[in-house]
Inverse folding.
């Protein structure tokens, strides 16, 4: 499926907001229900934040890519170019570990970010990209026609 | 909307009112302000999220960081939030079991004073 809108941005935190705004605009245009748009905004933000964080962690200047497709449903792919072992190491954290003194801020943010993705996206897939190095986070939402 | 931060004192509590979007770009400013307040001696801190219209994992990480810093100096930390979309974020991440969450600043102050903390 060819993407409807494709966006690529340098891995800087300031651009994540732009990705969220574009993602929600395309979702609205695609027919995603209004009451889901907050979740779309949050999920795209989390996926892009994750990608930006990984690129910075590995010193990569490659662009983070976001592809949005509006048929048959609204699908978003966020693609990073970090080593796969880093990208797939996503886990949710149990409540008693969240405020654990030994937990680093980075680990906490990663765990919480993944909990938000898993909680807000009904159909979430995290997998290696088909070509080259990197991971794609794929998210789908239903649309009303 | 850009991040806004305003500090005031209510009884013996330091209230930081946050507005706008707290995300990977703006969260470092929130972290700096919280650290400044704690370093300056604030021990009963309430963060009022009433004006926040977006909060992501980075922002949540900053809030947990402040909670830990205050615990380390025998301080208290509470959040004020009455917006359902934000409350849902706390529930999904299980952080509603980590933070004392109140509907209003008055409620947070009353609960903190009542606990003798």
């Amino acid at each position: 499926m060819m993407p409807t809108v494709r966006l690529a941005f340098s891995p800087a935190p300031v651009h994540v907001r732009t990705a969220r705004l574009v993602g929600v605009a395309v979702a609205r245009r695609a027919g995603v229900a209004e009451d889901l748009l907050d979740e779309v905004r949050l999920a795209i933000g989390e996926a892009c934040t994750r990608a930006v964080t990984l690129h910075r962690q590995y010193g990569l200047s490659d662009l983070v890519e976001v592809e949005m497709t509006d048929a048959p449903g609204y699908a978003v792919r966020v693609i990073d170019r970090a080593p796969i072992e880093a990208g797939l190491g996503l886990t949710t954290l149990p409540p008693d570990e969240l405020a654990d003194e030994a937990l680093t801020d980075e680990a906490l943010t990663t765990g919480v970010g993944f909990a938000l993705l898993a909680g807000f996206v009904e159909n979430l897939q995290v997998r290696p990209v088909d070509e080259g190095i990197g991971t794609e986070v794929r998210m789908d939402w239903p649309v009303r026609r | 909307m850009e991040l806004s931060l305003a500090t005031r004192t209510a009884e013996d509590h330091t209230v930081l009112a946050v507005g706008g979007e707290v995300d990977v770009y703006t969260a470092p400013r929130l972290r700096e302000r919280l650290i400044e307040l704690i370093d300056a001696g604030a021990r009963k801190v309430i963060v009022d999220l009433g004006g926040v219209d977006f909060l992501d994992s980075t922002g949540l990480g900053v809030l947990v960081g402040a909670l830990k810093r205050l615990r380390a100096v025998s301080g208290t930390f509470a959040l004020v939030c009455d917006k359902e979309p934000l409350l849902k974020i706390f529930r999904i991440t299980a952080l509603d079991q980590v933070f004392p969450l109140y509907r209003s600043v008055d409620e947070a102050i009353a609960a903190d004073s009542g606990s003798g903390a």
About this structure: The radius of gyration of chain B is 13 Å. Chain B has a mean pLDDT of 94. Residues 4-104 of chain B form a domain with the Transcription Regulator spoIIAA fold (CATH 3.30.750.24).
